[in-house]
Write a structure and sequence with these properties.
The protein has ten helices and no strands. It has 223 residues and is an all-alpha fold. Helix 1 crosses helix 2, helix 4 runs antiparallel to helix 6 and helix 6 packs parallel to helix 9.
Length: 223
């Protein structure tokens, strides 16, 4: 194994063809996880859907568990990249707290809505088996990424009438984020009718606005 390879990989793909095969395997697994859980997913059906072989799978991944770690790592890398684009100085410069909240809510919705199967599996794995690798990546998001969003909102603290803005921003964001995750990942399994995407984004944002006691909800859409 290459010294730079994560422990769940046999080796880090170096050639374009090898990287493409690995992405095909990950894409196939993600598609299958939209309709079944990780425990019932098999390597044979993944490689069949990916158009590759079991040998190709084991040439890259140590085992089936490694596949989920690779999906987790890919998700977090994409999430982190998108989050930093969200935080680009020009994006929120001069914008209201309401605009920032709704923009962040829309970003989170897009991320979670397009990878529900993978994220359901990751959430179950992290919580039921208490896997430290999964928890470490999730904790990094809270320790390193959330403070950047909090700082952007604190720059608008004159709009926030809650007596403790830092606390309110953190708790309000957690309420918005966990509510969204619960609805997107688990409500379909309960047979509940899905919310219209714009309705969900606007209502979750509005709940956050109310908790912060924003002086005004105007300009949430940048108008």
């Amino acid at each position: 194994m290459s010294a730079s390879s994560p422990e769940y990989l046999i080796q880090q793909p170096q050639q374009n063809r090898s990287r493409a095969t690995m992405e095909q395997i990950l894409d196939a697994a993600a598609e299958i996880l939209e309709i079944k859980n990780f425990e019932t997913l098999t390597i044979s059906e993944v490689v069949e859907k990916a158009g590759t072989s079991v040998g190709a799978f084991y040439g890259r991944f140590r085992d089936k568990e490694a596949l989920l770690h690779a999906l987790d790592a890919r998700f977090f890398a994409d999430f982190e990249q998108g989050f930093f684009q969200l935080l680009a100085p020009s994006r929120w410069q001069g914008k209201s707290a309401a605009y920032i909240i709704q923009d962040a809510c829309r970003f989170l919705f897009a991320v979670y809505n397009r990878q529900k199967g993978v994220l359901r599996s990751l959430n179950l794995k992290a919580r039921l088996e208490n896997d430290p690798a999964f928890r470490k990546r999730e904790q990094r998001a809270w320790d390193e990424l959330f403070p950047l969003l909090q700082a952007a909102l604190l720059a608008c603290k004159d709009e926030i009438r809650h007596p403790n803005p830092p606390l309110a921003i953190r708790l309000g964001f957690q309420q918005m984020f966990f509510s969204m995750r619960e609805i997107l990942l688990w409500e379909p399994l309960r047979g509940s009718a899905p919310y219209d995407s714009e309705v969900l984004i606007k209502e979750l944002s509005r709940a956050f606005f109310a908790y912060l006691r924003l002086a005004s909800e105007e300009n949430a859409n940048g108008e």
